[in-house]
Amino acid sequence: MSAPSYSLFCMGNPLLDMQVRDGEVLLEKYGLKANDAILAEEKHAHIYEDLVSNYDVTYVAGGAAQNAARGAAYVLPAGSVVYTGAVGDDGLAEQLKEANKREGLDQVYQVKAGEKTGACAVVITGHHRSLVTTLRVAEKFDKSHLSSPTVAPLIDNAKFFYVEGYFLTHGVESALELSTKASAAGKTFVLNISAPFIAQFFGAQLSQIIPYTDIIVGNEAEAEAWASANGYPNITDLPGIARAVALLPKVNASRPRTVVFTHGAESTVVVTADKPDEPKVYPVTALTNNQIVDTNGAGDAFVGGFLGGVVSGHTLDQAVLAGHALASACIQQIGPQYPWPKINIL
Asked: The pTM is what?
């Protein structure tokens, strides 16, 4: 029996989001910034119990690449997207599977017995979200899973690959496995920087992957962090930073690199290496305050829509607009979720 043929193969840290509102006290108590994403340190160890004991928690399937993969699956025909990452054999993993099923995302998790699935504390204050992640078993993903009889054929059959920057904190070898294979086969590899701390503290890992990357995605904070960490402190405009990233060395030079930087409700900037001095700026149709329910997952939703556009063969312009449309729909829901019944994005 032949393996299923998914167009898009995604990899990242599967997490269950534990989301609370009006979290100003939590920001102060745990020394958090209103709009940030960090890995939990010792001082954050009790935040998860704190949420459960003292707040009304909404549980939402999370993990950056998984959110984006669910978004792409929402946009694309059934059977187009598959996702991998490490989970435990617990209730959290079962909740993730249920959420994926609704959007039509298939998963080939590496399930580790006796381990706990990762979680993310999502502290909402106004229109900002502060993310505190405990990776748990997600950081124990084994590269060997990619060559397993179940997963290897899926990688061989896929035409597009997507990896979140968060995964580079522990899984750079697995990311290199995917990116080098994609590059050698002339397939499209997409990387999201994911958070400022990735550019600041995992620059070496990022630098290993970028030569094999066809499309790099990030937001304005991640772009600025990358510029600062890589000796470009004087380039502060998004088109300028995007140009610098687009022109970095690339192994498969036959496909010019594309860099996509979002900037919240303002605009999205796209620069391609073959036309580095011709940035494209796409304005965002801003929502009113009353329309915005929750901005958590908006960036991942943008990537989901964008990937949907790219995978289905639409133009770059159409893919960006699809990203805007799905992000807009997402922030009118609670958490990184998408509206039902389905709306037509592409």
From this structure: 0.94
